[in-house]
Amino acid sequence: MVKILVARSSEGNRTLASMLEREGFEPIAVDVLSFLPPSRWDKVDSVINSMNKFDWVVLTSATGVSFFLKRVREVGRRCDLKNVSFAAVGPKTAACLERAGLKKVFIPSKYTTEQLAKELPKKGKNVLLLRSNIASKEVVKILKKRGFDVINVVIYRTLKKYNSVSIEVPDGIVFGSPSEVRALSSICENLDKMKSLPAFCIGPVTRKEAEIAGFRNTIIPPNYTFDSLVEQIKRYFL
């Protein structure tokens, strides 16, 4: 059976491992990241209490949506979100918003944060970004260059697990974000043995990070989603 290393958070590993198992692969799940709330909520609470002043609220991950909606419920302002215009990096993130009853969600033509910044409609200037503490600054640069006023607020923290581990060498590796590449590289003692393996990356930004880390056979799917990524793995191996 083909073995695929999935190196994500515990929740992300469970989801992706299940997808791979259904397709006949054997996942090797290694938890390399954890997601925690902000160290303080005051900035988040402030923007939640003034959501109507923003022309766009941008969320770049399903994890961010989860932390955001949980905090909105805790401060009791969920009803105010009905008239807010949201933008999401892709369909999974948008679906998380839509399940909460938030229907006005913009999605870019390609599911990357940079493409989202390039395509965000200019129906107003004020943009709120709700993201991880380690998110790329490129989105902010693009939006500001286009004339938007941007407020960036940390909605959750991404922490790497630094314990060194020796991992069974698989037949292929999946990377769902640049932070997963960096985290695996920082803890895997035998990473050099894996750098010639096919590294299936969710999109071009993650592929670039994998190549910087030394992976020589990087592959991205035609659509930057995990469903498309699993299909890409099937085409490669089966």
For the report, how would you describe the main beta sheet? Answer: 10 strands, mixed
Please state the CA-atom Rg, rounded to the nearest Å.
18 Å
CATH level-1 class of the largest domain: Alpha Beta
CATH fold assignment of the largest domain? Rossmann fold
Return the string of H and E elements: EHEHEHEHEHEHEEHEHEH
* Low-confidence spans: none
Range of strand content: 15-25%
Helix fraction, binned, reads 25-40%
The pLDDT mean sits at 94
How does this structure look, described?
Helix 3 packs parallel to helix 4, helix 5 packs parallel to helix 6 and helix 7 runs parallel beside helix 8. This protein has helices at residues 10-22, 42-48, 62-75, 91-99, 113-119, 138-145, 178-187, 204-212, 226-237; strands at 3-9, 26-36, 56-59, 86-88, 105-106, 126-132, 149-160, 172-175, 198-201, 217-219. The longest helix has 14 residues, at 62-75. The protein has a 10-stranded mixed β-sheet with strand order 5-4-3-6-7-2-1-8-9-10, sandwiched between helices. The chain starts with a strand and ends with a helix. By secondary structure, it is of the alpha/beta class. The protein has 9 helices and 10 strands. 37% of the residues lie in helices and 24% in strands.
What is this structure's SSE topology?
Layout: E1 3-9, H1 10-22, E2 26-36, H2 42-48, E3 56-59, H3 62-75, E4 86-88, H4 91-99, E5 105-106, H5 113-119, E6 126-132, H6 138-145, E7 149-160, E8 172-175, H7 178-187, E9 198-201, H8 204-212, E10 217-219, H9 226-237
Parallel strand pairs: 1-2, 1-8, 3-4, 3-6, 4-5, 6-7, 8-9, 9-10
Antiparallel strand pairs: 2-7
Helix pairs in contact: 3-4, 5-6, 7-8
